[in-house]
Amino acid sequence: MARREVGEINAGSMADIAFLLLIFFLVTTTMEVDAGIGRTLPLKRDQNSPPVEINERDVLDIMANKNDQLLVENRQLQIEDLEEVVRDFYLANLDSETNPDLPLYTTISRTQCLQKIAASKAALATNPKNDVANQELAKWTAKLAVCESIPNNSYREISNKAIIQLKNQANTSFGRYIDIQDILKKVVNDLRSEKAEEYGWGTYLELKETVEEDIETIERLRILVPERIVEAKIEK
Amino acid sequence: MSKFKKGGKKGIPGVNTSALPDIIFMLLFFFMVATTMKEVDMQVDVKKPQATQAMAIEDKDNVDFIYIGRPYDAEEGTEPRIQLDDALAPDPTFVPIWKQQKAREGKKPFDIVTSLKVDKTVGMRIVSDVKEGLRTIDALKINYSADQLVAK
Questions:
Q1: What are φ and ψ of residue B114, in 5° steps?
Q2: Structural domain boundaries of chain A?
Q3: B11 in any annotated domain
Q4: What ipTM was estimated for this complex?
Q5: FRET partner for B108 with CA separation of 20 to 30 A, picked from A97, B23, B37, B136?
Q6: Is B62 on the interface with A (CB under 8 A)?
Q7: Interface-testing mutation among A24, A167, A178, with chain B (most B C-beta atoms within 10 A)
């Protein structure tokens, strides 16, 4: 009985099949990366809570009108100059009070943190449901972590009321809004990068929120260079 | 002299194409890996703004996309509209409802980033309305979509 030989499989059409698949993927491919500027919106505030008192000097007022022109602290400004103004807002009074119109800095030291923690713990001992004391405790514990991670165990902190206020009009273009957000983000990223470099914590932009050790560093940098943006509602 | 000349046909031998499938497969795999499928059919025109500080979104599974721009379909008018998934929303009040429908199991609204893909010429009114809507359901993490611009 003659053994039947298995014939060779014709692979000639393999290329055609692969081509078909290739063309399918070529057509459906979108190479663009989803990129953007991340922001966290403020919590919706209780109608009942009292308005917070603010000092003129602690607010950087940025307004964009319907023609996309900028008004910063009631002066007209070109978008190219905004970065310098925002940077100045952060750094002008860092070492000593040089500009009375910009926010003050205070020194936060380890001893001060410990005192505040002790005080809020005492308040919690009498009333464990004291929300204010709980918040204080969390805040000062975080600040203590910062103090203990840097030389001298103390740092300069910008006034905790310092905010950047963004106002838009209904017809302000989204493009201009992103220009402003981009500049604000750039200044904060730059300042945090400088801090991270100063204390040898690595490169700020390479820190990942998914890595545990990085989260701590990011938290510390957020305390050292806070980013407080308030957006006013668009007037009807 | 003709010692080495073998008899037979002369001429150019055929090109060996047996490696062609391999090459094509390699290309195919490259595109398969690099591909991200289009999420939706765009019904509004979105020309994204540019930003130097734009960062790539990494966890794409935990992102919802909202598109805002002028509709392609002239019957829908020329005013900027909001596109949620494959449909145009009649007004911004639909955003929180839609967002809640898209909630993932075991995740709070806060955990899911909302990416706003907004045309750069659109006015801020509609963007502001959408943001207010998201705040009402505590979906506070947002991302303004922008093309990465390399700083000069």
A1: -105, 120
A2: 58-103+161-236, 105-158
A3: no
A4: 0.78
A5: B37
A6: no
A7: A178
